[in-house]
Structures are given as C-alpha cells and as structure tokens.
Specification:
With about 300 residues, this protein is an alpha/beta fold. Helix content is about 25%, strand content about 30%. The chain is built from seven helices and 19 strands. It binds flavin-adenine dinucleotide (FAD).
C-alpha cells in the first residue's frame, strides 16, 4: 500500500496531523491503536473550548473526523521503518508493507516507572505521572514528588501552589542550580531517600522509604522522565536526546528530510493542547513537503 504521508501514532497529535494533511488532499495513513493513547485514561479540564471531558470521547470524535477527511486508519503497531528511494518503507505487526513519501512520528511517550510495590495498584488513585495534569486534584493535600532531576523539582514547585505540604524525595538532588534555589526558598521538604513501598486503602495513604521513614500522604507524583522511541527513530537517522525526545523546528521538521514529529515525543509540556497544535503544524508541513509547496 502506498501513501503520501504515514503518521505513526493514533493519539491527539497523530489524529490532528491526519485531519490537516488529509484536507490538503494528500493520501494519508494513520498507524497505531487509539486505545493506547495517553488520552484514553485522561479526564481533561484544561483544554480550549471544552469543560470537563473524557479523553476517550475526544479520541473517538477525532478518529471519526480523521476518517471523514479521508485518512485511512490501520489499528496496528509499526514494527520497522527504513529509508527507501523517494521516501520510506514500513512494516506493521501483521507484516503489512507500506510506503510513503513523508512520515510523521507521533508515538507519544511512556512515562518511566518506579517499580515499587503499590505503584501499579494505586495508579490513578493517588499515584500520578503528570503534575501538570493532576495538580488540581491535590488542593490542600499532602503529596510527595519522586525523582532526582529538574523535572521533579519543577513538579514540586508547581504542586506547592496547590498542596498544603510537599515532600521532594530523591536519591540525589541534581536539578539545575536555578531550580534548586527556587525549591530551597520554599517550605518543600527535601528527603534524600528512595521509596520501598506505596501503601493505602482505596487511595494512597503513605509511602515507606529506605531510610526507615514513613510519610503520610494523599498523593505520589512520579517524575522520572520519559521512555523514548529511540529504536524507531534511529532507523531514519533521528537520534533522540538523553530524555528520549525528538528535536523539531518550527514546522515540526526533524533533521531527516521528509520526517516530521509532533506531540509528547517532542518534549514537555506533555499536554493535549501542545500535542494538537503540533499535530496541525506537522500535518500541514508534511502535506506541503509531498506537494513541494512552501509554507
Ligand atoms: C492519566 C493522564 C492524564 C492526563 N491529563 C491531561 C490533562 O488533564 N490535560 C492535558 O492537556 N493533558 C493530559 N494528559 C496528557 C495528554 O494525554 C498527552 O499530552 C497527549 O495524549 C499526547 O498526545 P500524543 O498524540 O503525543 O501521544 P499519545 O496520546 O500517547 O498517543 C500516542 C499514539 O502512538 C501510538 N504508538 C506508539 N508506538 C507506536 C508504534 N510503534 N506503532 C504505531 N503506533 C504507535 C500509540 O498506540 C498511540 O495511539 C494526561 C495524560 C495521562 C496519561
């Protein structure tokens, strides 16, 4: 099957890219399982024009719209990509072979896990991987942020605006000097330790640390960064940075001609509004690339 633009990822970035590229009348394929999008599990309350909304409903509406605008959606995962004459060759999990002139990488990210007892059990019940998404649910509560680096420091600072007490738990405190200074100017309690167990009943009640402390908590924010899509991207000569992110320019172009990227995979903030905005830019840019039109 031959396409002008293949989009890897059926989340908000990929589906928005599909809508914009299809309306430029190029032949578009979206590869990926919408049910694996981060948005499927989210309750959105900070997106333009919608109040409180189930992410699942947004995905469903956008999937329908992408198809109506002409995109073909294949609900399977990509196995391999390779560079080919005039574009790219791809193979899916059902060993279907596809070609395209341009590619859009929109595979999202998977948040790094802590791998301690209670983490999985209380995910969504007090354990969160996104302070920006969930800070509002912890007004006047006690929370802990886990992670050594700047991402954890900025999550702790954000949460301090909402929660009544914030612990920042880390093996080493390695955030940038500017962020360290800001944290030290607050009453955020820095604890040099690492968790051994998150416990609770219906929701999180606390966390045991390897220094013997037992913190009483309502929430645990795991801010360890993202797992990248390095293997996939490297097949088309794109080398994600140390956080797993793919660098793009203002038109969402990567360093490889004909390859664009959008959404969580290009870096923070991991937010719907950014994913959709970049999806629009990448979709238009990829269609223009195929049609050899300028911006
Ligand atoms: C619990 C939770 C709550 C959130 N709350 C909010 C909120 O309140 N507000 C907000 O703005 N944002 C929120 N977010 C973040 C928001 O959901 C993400 O920023 C957004 O979904 C990112 O879109 P994306 O398209 O880049 O990636 P995703 O939505 O993760 O989609 C990635 C897609 O790529 C596909 N894919 C991955 N690898 C492959 C492969 N090899 N082959 C084919 N397809 C592949 C996946 O199956 C998926 O379809 C929340 C996220 C979570 C997890």
């Amino acid at each position: 099957m031959n396409f002008d633009v293949i989009i890897i990822g059926a989340g908000p970035a990929g589906l928005q890219a599909a809508m914009h590229a299809s309306r430029k009348k190029v032949k578009v394929c979206v590869l990926g399982k919408p049910s694996n999008s981060a948005l499927e599990r989210a309750e959105i309350e900070n997106y333009f024009g919608v109040g409180m909304m189930k992410g699942k409903d947004l995905i469903e509406t956008s999937l329908k719209a992408a198809k109506e605008f002409g995109a073909q959606v294949l609900e399977e995962d990509l196995l391999t990509i390779e560079m080919a004459e005039g574009g790219f060759k791809l193979k899916t999990e059902s060993l279907r072979e596809l070609t395209s002139k341009a590619l859009i990488l929109a595979p999202g990210i998977s948040r790094k896990k802590l791998n301690v007892e209670g983490e999985k059990e209380f995910h969504g019940l007090g354990v969160s991987y996104c302070a920006t998404c969930d800070c509002n649910f912890f007004k006047k509560k006690t929370v802990a942020v886990l992670g050594d680096a700047s991402m954890a420091a900025s999550a702790a600072l954000l949460l301090r605006e909402y929660a009544s007490k914030v612990y920042w738990v880390a093996k080493e405190f390695t955030a940038s000097p500017q962020l360290m200074e800001k944290v030290k100017a607050t009453d955020i309690e820095m604890v040099k330790a690492w968790p051994t167990k998150i416990y609770g009943e219906q929701t999180v009640k606390g966390m045991l640390l390897d220094n013997g402390r037992d913190l009483t908590l309502n929430g645990v924010f795991i801010e360890l960064g993202a797992k990248g899509v390095a293997d996939l991207a490297m097949e088309v000569n794109i080398f994600p940075d140390e956080n797993g992110y793919i660098a793009v320019d203002r038109s969402c172009a990567t360093g490889t001609p004909g390859v664009f990227a959008c959404g969580d995979v290009t870096g923070q903030p991991w937010q719907l509004a950014k994913a959709v905005g970049e999806g629009c830019v990448a979709g238009l840019a990829a269609a223009n690339y195929v049609k050899k039109e300028g911006e």
